[in-house]
Design a protein that fits this description.
Helix content: over 70%
Strand order of the largest sheet: 1-2
Order of helices and strands: HHHHEEHH
Radius of gyration: 19 Å
Structural class: mainly alpha
């Protein structure tokens, strides 16, 4: 096992502990750690020594969760996969903020269905309020991250 493979496995395991499923974690770790800028599914299968079928599900997950960008391959069949340009993690975090709008709206719909003053409604209201707090704090986090990144690079 070479150093790149060891780095990918270590990073992949870390991403798993953060909640990513095993194969998407390994694929994302490979895309982050390897030097290429874009990958075909075949590139990823070769790099990780896994079947193309394993790659298919992993890149679908990564694309659906905005961790990688899927693009049409201008040179032929299939798609190309890459991380987002520039500030990878800041861009990923920003892309997830609109999802919170949908979640908060859904939780609010649940609040509206529950009887006023009930214990269940109070717990669901607290859930909504926490998600609003996370949403507001996330916007500030993005600004603070960009400032920190500028100061430390």
């Amino acid at each position: 096992m070479n150093d790149l493979s060891r780095a990918v496995e270590r990073l992949g395991q870390t991403l798993e502990t953060m909640g990513l499923p095993r194969m998407p974690a390994r694929v994302f770790a490979f895309i982050l750690a390897d030097d290429q800028s874009v990958y075909t599914a075949a590139d990823l299968a070769r790099g990780l020594d896994v079947s193309p079928a394993a790659i298919s599900g992993a890149v679908r997950y990564l694309s659906d969760t905005h961790l990688v960008v899927r693009e049409r391959n201008p040179a032929g069949r299939g798609d190309l996969f890459r991380v987002r340009d520039g500030d990878i993690w800041g861009t990923i975090q920003a892309a997830r903020l609109p999802v919170l709008d949908v979640i908060i709206a859904s939780v609010q719909e649940a609040v509206d269905l529950l009887p006023e003053g009930s214990a269940g409604r109070e717990r669901v209201e607290e859930t909504r309020d926490y998600l609003r707090f996370v949403q507001e704090d996330s916007r500030g986090l993005d600004r603070r991250w960009r400032e920190w990144r500028s100061a430390h690079r």
